[in-house]
Write a structure and sequence with these properties.
homotetramer; 9 helices; mainly alpha
């Protein structure tokens, strides 16, 4: 079966997951107190921006994979459902980290974030390798170097996130810095270093 | 008329229904209490995961049907609207069951879940047989064995769910175990046993 | 310009507007009180079902129009935005009517519902006649009888809803019965009487 | 890579961002007090309508750009993600302005609105000029006059919004009138003055 509806469904989930965090952006204040309330709720805006960009990166990656894949079977659809369930969960721990950046809840929040990202990376790994091994679902005219390039770039994801999650047990602050560095690396790798595509 | 827009609309509803439950996933706690609050709200995560997967399975099945169907008439569009209304309702009783797993509200929650799933199964039945009887909306080149295979697999759905719902009157716990077994069976049947696509 | 993206955007709004009311379906109760709470909140389920079906009918009608329309200009896109803004508003007054069916707020709720439906009917009228007059945006191969059939069926919408809204000033109950009768007529007209399409 | 999935994702975000504000439209009142509550919450309806139309205009403009663009690279996808993050944020400051129209919070609300619109205009600028400079992503058959027309119309957006935002420091009311005038100008420019397309 072709991948068209998989893409429509996935794009819907990506769009909703990215946008939904705006519901949590609020500023209830009377009259002149609004300015202070807006300034005070900056972690909400940060969480919104970080989630949107994170999900945006995942959407770009999902997009890139599906350009090389030209068919789907039922198992692939289920892997995709599991992947999307992880992705749509991302805004929740992102908000937790933003809200607890400066209090004693940061360890729990960083663990929640790290576990979610590790699970997402595992699903992305399963998603890609299910399609790529033996070129099971890969388009006949897909460039083998691009397929291998993606395979190489997906291998370290889960261990890196699992490692950063373990760091949270020792130092939550260090793990958050690590998570930010990983995200930054993915943005740069996807948009600056990579030529073509 | 072709089925393209039916699919876009349906994919939108599936995507929103699956994703929306994340709104209910919350953890309000100050500082060090966050870890405990996260651990305590596991029924919310379970409900999110179960809903997402349930709706994912329904999306895969809807998808499979529409691959054999190549046109729609207005009555079929309305049946589809009714089916989607049932599917978008599923997250609500799923959350009820998760929240009342260990208190006296389990009977009511299991009944709500069972009635929703029975109604959904009836709509799926109507959806498929309206299209399949006399191959009314089936594509000319669709394999008759696949059409019959789907017809066979859709016949028992509504009676099975109705039966498990009745069990809830006697033993809510037994009915919840039955519901889980049915869901597991559908996942396995769709993804493991079935060969091909 | 072609109408594809108009359809994607519209289908997204339809899907969200139809599904969003599920957020309002809640049942907060502890333990054994859940059964009673579920039974008591039936107006929420009724509002959900009525909204979903109403928006479903509008989606079918929008769909039917766009099958005869094969291009769009910027003004048509704006009319479409206004129409979608009305449609996405429908769940709100629908819920008001359901919640106030048996108290003194029914007049205000019926007026809100009637005004929303009148505005929606006016936008649908503008949407269709902007495209149909002089076959401005109608596909060259569209059947003139179908175009005229739709034009005829869209003429009475706004006056009928405006009339039923005025009735709410005298008798809210009578206007709600009228609204139900109009909705039922549209379902029957679309799905039972009409052959073909 | 083609722009199809960019459009599906974008249309999803546009549809959700436009529709989501309906969640904030509420009227909790018992019995006869409903009429007053509905009349009193008009800023909610105004915010809903203004947001929906603003996002509708942006959707039309995004649509117009993508008709001339026939391919995307990864950087363009990221610019698009940033643009969509801004657009999905618009309903929040719009509601703030509506709620604080007549109290001391108008300055903060107008600044929030102005900053959001300035950021959105900058992203729209980056979105278009990234594609248009040297016709990097422009379709080979796209009319050069249309490309230049869009370039000309996108140049003043960010400075105009930045200027109106600065006005809010001196007079919040004046800046809100300016914002309304800018929005009105865009509607008229897009739908009345412009011939063709």
């Amino acid at each position: 079966m072709p991948t068209t509806r998989l893409e429509t469904f996935a794009d819907g989930v990506f769009a909703i997951a990215a946008t939904l965090l705006i519901i949590d952006v609020t500023a209830d204040a009377h009259g002149g107190a609004l300015g202070g309330a807006l300034a005070h709720s900056w972690p909400q805006y940060a969480a919104y921006a970080v989630s949107f960009v994170t999900i945006g990166i995942m959407w770009v990656n999902h997009h890139t994979c599906l350009e090389l894949i030209d068919r789907a079977d039922r198992r692939f659809l289920f892997i995709n459902v599991a992947l999307l369930a992880c992705i749509a969960f991302v805004p929740f721990p992102t908000r937790l980290v933003a809200e607890h950046l400066r209090d004693g809840g940061l360890r729990a929040a960083a663990l929640a974030y790290g576990l979610t990202m590790t699970a997402t990376a595992i699903c992305f790994f399963a998603f890609w390798f299910y399609a790529a091994i033996g070129r099971r679902l890969i388009a006949a005219d897909a460039d083998e170097r691009m397929v291998r390039g993606i395979s190489r770039s997906y291998l370290p994801g889960a261990p890196i996130y699992a490692g950063a999650t373990l760091v949270a047990l020792a130092s939550p602050t260090a793990s958050v810095i690590l998570f930010a560095a990983i995200a930054l690396f993915y943005v740069l790798e996807s948009s600056v270093f990579v030529r073509g595509a």
